[in-house]
Write a structure and sequence with these properties.
196 residues; 9 helices; globular
């Protein structure tokens, strides 16, 4: 319950910031905002025992389920590329990568969760690595393009794209990190039971 409230408040704050245009006046570009929010969220999870315990109770399924949103984000990137709002140099990789990871998340939910076998755990891990590499690649590409042309980030300073750096990207990266921790915890627990 606490996690849902925190996420709803965060999402509401992201919408307000994007809707008021405050992001356009902010001196930090959207890719760095996404990185900063990710670091803050990871620190909160790391340093707050209550947050860690709540996420552990949550389990992996909601963390994987969130990634289905990447299908919509990826499709929107492709539309923005086709319309010339964003360069195709960015939207082709970002769009198709997000769509593939989002569709694969549905497969992981149906075939790998709950993880009862080593094969299921491997499937979850392969998807998690691929998904993390994809989002880091998109973030790195966005940063590179911003450095080449600062006007690249203008569409990310207003709705709907502003929700990506303010909310979606940090949640995606944090959920990948949490899933790595969950898989390790599950493996340790299984090994302990086997040894007993």
């Amino acid at each position: 319950m606490m996690i849902r409230v925190v996420l709803l408040v965060w999402l509401a704050a992201a919408f307000v910031i994007a809707w008021t245009g405050a992001l356009r006046q902010f001196p930090v570009p959207p890719p760095l905002i996404a990185i900063g929010l990710t670091v803050v969220a990871l620190l909160v999870v790391r340093l707050a025992p209550g947050a860690r315990a709540a996420i552990t109770r949550l389990g992996p399924a909601p963390l994987v389920l969130f990634h289905v949103v990447r299908v919509a984000a990826g499709a929107y990137f492709l539309v923005m590329g086709a319309r010339g709002v964003l360069p195709r140099e960015f939207t082709t990789f970002a769009g198709w990568g997000d769509i593939l990871v989002g569709v694969a998340a549905i497969w992981v939910l149906m075939r790998c969760l709950p993880t009862r076998t080593a094969l299921q755990r491997a499937g979850l891990m392969i998807w998690n690595v691929a998904g993390l590499l994809d989002i880091l690649g998109v973030l790195g590409n966005a940063t590179r393009m911003f450095l080449k042309d600062p006007s690249f980030v203008v569409p990310f300073t207003s709705l709907p794209l502003a929700i990506l750096p303010l909310f979606v990207v940090p949640i995606v990266i944090v959920s990948h990190a949490l899933l790595f921790g969950w898989v390790r915890l599950k493996a340790d627990t299984t090994a302990h039971v086997v040894r007993r």
